[in-house]
Design a protein that fits this description.
Layout (H helix, E strand, L loop, with lengths): L4 H16 L11 E6 L5 E4 L15 E4 L4 E3 L8 H10 L5 E5 L2 H8 L9 H7 L4 E3 L7 H10 L6 E4 L3 E6 L2 H24 L8 H15 L2
Parallel strand pairs: 6-7
Antiparallel strand pairs: 1-2, 1-5, 2-3, 3-4, 5-8, 7-8
Helix pairs in contact: 1-6, 2-5, 3-6, 4-7
The structure holds zinc ion.
């Protein structure tokens, strides 16, 4: 039996669900990546580069240390492994990360439009609004630095300029669910912007209370 089988399977379950929902782009494939931290070790399980997600088996998932060495697995890890590790270094509370090319967040990524807090449930799940991470090329050190800087705001969802989205969570289930929350809010916000009418945001006090409530619930 392979090492870290539980974490590897959780990455596959998340990746295949996200693929089935169209969050990895229109094609069946690998437009995005998923990782989870392993216990208290400085290790993550992450999707491989260039393997169709619908066919993944636990052995295909790469186990990588915080210096980007592959500890277990025969495939090359995702090209965005450095970005995932940068987030884990910056945020102790984050235990899982999903990067997608989901459609409505991608629309906002090319008009450079952050999403303000608009609904109670989504604000609680995402820990506030959704900021835009400035553009840098996929797999670049600049992108790792841009992402690591923006995620220190403590929120759980981000738009990546001219690229896609990034969702975080205290568990892989939460990070995966946050992808759906982000897409819902991006979808609604895009259509609301298109009306040209004034958009009402949640009052500041309500946002602060919702963020506090979500932290109390997490026990952070
Ligand atoms: Zn990408």
């Amino acid at each position: 039996m392979e090492q870290y089988s539980e974490e590897r399977q959780s990455v596959i379950d998340s990746a295949q669900w996200l693929l089935s929902q169209g969050y990895f782009g229109p094609e069946l494939g690998t437009a995005g990546n998923v990782s989870v931290r392993i216990g208290d070790e400085k290790l993550i399980a992450i999707t491989p580069s260039g393997c169709p997600y619908q066919n993944l088996v636990p052995d295909d998932i790469c186990i990588v240390d915080f210096d980007q060495n592959v500890v277990s697995g025969t495939h090359r890890p995702s090209v965005e492994t450095g970005m995932h590790l940068g987030v884990y270094e910056a945020r102790e509370d984050v235990r899982a990360i999903v990067h997608t090319h989901q459609p409505f967040a991608s629309i906002l990524s090319i008009i450079n439009e952050p999403i303000p807090p608009l609904f109670d449930d989504i604000t609680m799940a995402l820990g506030g609004g959704v900021e835009v991470v400035p553009y840098a090329m996929s797999g670049s050190v600049d992108l790792v630095q841009n992402v690591a800087k923006v995620v220190t705001n403590g929120c759980n969802a981000f738009i990546m300029q001219n690229h896609g989205a990034l969702c975080l969570g205290a568990t892989i289930e939460k990070a995966t669910k946050n992808v759906a929350f982000l897409e819902k809010i991006a979808h609604v916000y895009y259509h609301a912007l298109a009306t040209g009418k004034k958009i009402t945001q949640l009052p500041k006090e309500a946002v602060e209370m919702l963020i506090q409530l979500s932290k109390d619930k997490e026990g952070i």
